[in-house]
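Ticket #4471: structure output looks truncated?

Reporter: J.K.
Steps to reproduce: submitted the chain below (427 residues) through the standard prediction queue, then opened the result file.
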Amino acid sequence: MYQDFYDILHKEVKPALGCTGPLGPVYAAASAMSILGGSDIKHIHIRGSKNTVGRNADVGIPGVSKTGIPMAVCIGAVGGDASAGLEVLRNVTPEQKEIAERLADSGIVEVEMDLSINGRYVELVLETEKGTSKVIVATEVDNVVYQEVNGKVLLDKPYDIKKLNDHSKALIRQHTIKECYEFAKNCPIEELYFLRDTVSYNSKMADYALQSDTGAGIGRGLLEISPDDMLMRAKAYAAAGCETRMAGVQLTAMSVCNKGNVGLASSLPLVSMADSMKVSEEVLLRAVALSCLVSIMTISNIGKSPAMCSCMVSAALGVACGLVLMMDGSYEQVQYAFSNTFVNSFGVVCDGARQACAMRLAVGTGVAVDAARLAMKNVHLPFNMGVLGVDMEDSLRFLGVIGQGPMIATDVALCEALFEKAPMSKK
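Returned output as attached by the reporter:
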């Protein structure tokens, strides 16, 4: 059983440079250029799902000063490295940045949103002096399922467009949160040393914003309110990491389920609390492992492109459970922390990646820490009441039913309004 959890963590916890929201278009453009070539980009047409192009007009892109989908595809085509996965923009040069910004302003990019598609989907056609190429990225930000150059098909992997956001067969769905807890608490600590990168990378993100004028100043502001309060420090640290990422600073974050903000939200509150509580690295890594696993299990129910805010809904649950482990709580107290958090984060709507996410990370952290502290006092909300199911797994199934059912109509309307409201490229 432990091998499953190692495999899940290694698959779902990985580095990402920049917000993963617009990285699908970035990666598709980089892939299209890699198979076509050329120096004169004449036209780019992108058709994306509501989750891909409807929510990502305001988030920063590493290395450039503009935001928006046209900017994302132009920097991907001009400077992207498709072989680098989620770090596709790691080698962008200043010259490539200038070229991409001019192209984004020139109007050569045509953006189409397909409201019928729920999940991660990008279909991109690139035209240069060497002809045209077509690339489709689906299910994951960096998962190319189709490639075509000048009419010749190079790759055609099967996928079901109706099930892009369905992760019901995910490996973690074969397990329980109790098994996640037992693994995190008892596995050989050496097997979790790879999570040191999660602590290190994400801490650098938070430290950057706290030591600069990056973002809206939410992290710094929270810290100034009450610098000696451990809860406020945890909220500030989570918010600051998010602000760095949303601003497009060229620092790598460790993502969870291809979601950088979930990676930050699942780990940074625990890093801060571990520092305040003076716990060992081993205890911190075990807490982060449990937090990530609970977040992954939650996302397997609501999907990787949900109508709900993954940071509030999944990462808060992860942090609450991880913090109980950090405080040497029992499995029963993990259940208590889960139920306390679940009712306070259920159904929070996602309006896309932007600086406002930092506020949500702070709020989610506050909910999680309060829930865990109450759980350690054996204070809890009973299961099978309201949105809570009979146990944790049943609660997550119910969450998924609502998130991938009736909330989709709300999500469609929201994404359509956001797409119409925002210009495609912003300075």
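Triage note (M.O.): checked the attachment and the full token line is present. The two ends are 50 Å apart (CA to CA).
Status: closed, working as intended.
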